[in-house]
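Side project, low priority. Logging it here so it doesn't get lost.
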Amino acid sequence: MGRHSNKASDLWKSQPWKKLRQNLFRLQRRLYKAVQAGDQRKARSRQLLIMKSRSAQLLAIRQVTQLNQGKKTPGIDGKSSLNYRQRLNLLELLNQHATDWKHAGLREIPIAKKNGKTRLLKIPTIADRAWQCLVKFALEPAHEAEFHPCSYGFRTGRGAHDAQKHMQNHLKSNSNGITKRVIELDIKKCFDRISHSTIMANLIAPKCIKQGVFRCLKAGVNPEFPEQGTPQGGVVSPLLANVALNGIEEIHPSIRYADDMVIFLKPKDDAEKVLQNVATFLAERGMEISQEKTKITHSTNGFDFLGWNFRVQKNGKFRSMPSADNLRAIKKKIKAVANSSNYGAKVKAKKLEPIVRGWRNYHRNCKMDGSRNSLWFTAKRTHDKFLREKKISKGQAKKLITKAFPKVKWKENKQIKVRGTKSPYDGDLVYWSERNSKLYDNATARALKKQNHCCGQCGHKLLGNESVHLHHIDGNHDNWKPKNLMAIHQSCHQYIHSSQKDT
């Protein structure tokens, strides 16, 4: 058994992942170009090539078993992970049944919402997640060629910071932001109510893929609404939601991030007429506006979107900062670690560092000075807790707080928005690699520049379709010397650390 296990392990780890990624990207770029040219027959042919591609199948399995955040979450079959032999068995299963996949049931997990209600997260099995990931490889480039430029959520090469810049462009002083109002649109149970027929009608795919997607949708239906809903927890679900909602941005100048949307109103715009047009669009897709949560707000009163509070000041200057809810959430996280009795101050500081760094990085284009946004009081209280622990001197406590609350450079409203309808699948390597270096700051940006925007591990250009990680070459995360830092793909980073564990 051990010999077979080692053989499977060696076979999996010896896969030429760099070459596989190149093969898949080449197919996806050709698919994107076919849809752009309006050649549906050629597009469907290339989607079938992706589904049957061994490169795509291997990468899909690796994505759901090694890279995705919820990779350890079990489905209805109870499996939370696959060993190397099981991954290779799944590869053969995908190879035989990629175009006639039978979807298993979903495991339901209730998740508490802010308003006290619960929503159901519906988790597919690992095998179904791998098939969904494979389908996503075949669907995403086709739809990226048609998606609206004002949509930013769950799209490759785009993110929340692009949406933040889009907001500034509409509300800054030379756009007369001070005179504008916004509609904070909330779609009632969006993911639970999306019409299956709308998704199927708008899906760019051959019949066999559509049939598989239809089975996937039917596996997660609510008995009350058998013709509606995408399972929240599926790999392909956010893409399907984008497919159904694409075009809503054309009704009126707006910004959309998945099902969150803000519509911009000039003084003479009729808000009721705009909302009526939106309601008609949604009704055709089985959805409706939430009357309770949708509101019209003047830009000078401020509003929340994607964890930020946006406001136009009385002097006409546009301002964004972390929202009150977002600030409350990060303080709660920090407090949970700082108050824990399970470990000492040194471990607490180590655990707090990525939490605080991640939060500050997310808000690096905001106003981050002042005691509120700099977390000064939170750091002070954490410092006092460290001091109360045994054998911690004032000097040590100060050093630990500096480590736990790392500084991140911020520049208000200086982010660079993705250009027009650009997509990583368009093959413009120069644009995407250079843009990637501007998205990151500090040590990551310097490492990217030094490496000519290429991954330090596999040598590929670092595009927007996978996040960039900063690898500490000697394993010491306190050593931030430039020679010890290397910008690499998330998947390459994980491969390095998994290889180190095995040796």
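Brief comment: The two ends are 20 Å apart (CA to CA).
Revisit when time allows.
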